[in-house]
Specification:
It comes from Glycomyces artemisiae. The chain is mainly α. It has a domain of about 60 residues. Helices cover about 55% and strands about 0% of the residues.
């Protein structure tokens, strides 16, 4: 609907421009808020990483590359079998430990 006078036309223009400027200002305000939030998150992330780095969080547990002290077996009952053909005593819980020691050695065992 056309305005009745030049004064009313200018008034309509000012109102339309004010609405347009308000919409643009709202968009810009939201954009600045998101940018500020992103900056705060970035600063918090950097500070956290610096704190963890100084605390030693990123130093991995390095395997010991020095001299190995002994060979570790996974089975505690496993023993190395001798290769000369003689038998060794096993860890049998039902065996009598004094039964073997009470026997007298034979001639082949003493030599």
């Amino acid at each position: 609907m056309p305005a009745k006078s030049k004064h009313m036309e200018q008034r309509k223009q000012r109102i339309a421009n004010a609405k347009k400027n308000a919409r643009l200002a709202g968009k810009l305000r939201r954009r600045r808020q998101l940018q500020a939030l992103g900056g705060l998150l970035a600063v918090a992330a950097v500070l956290t990483l610096v704190y963890l780095w100084q605390d030693g969080f990123f130093k991995g547990e390095e395997p010991a590359t020095e001299e190995p002290t002994a060979e570790v077996t996974t089975d505690p009952l496993a023993t190395d079998a001798p290769t000369d053909g003689t038998e060794t005593a096993t860890a049998d819980p039902t065996a009598d430990p004094t039964a073997e020691s009470s026997e007298t050695p034979t001639d082949t065992e003493t030599e």
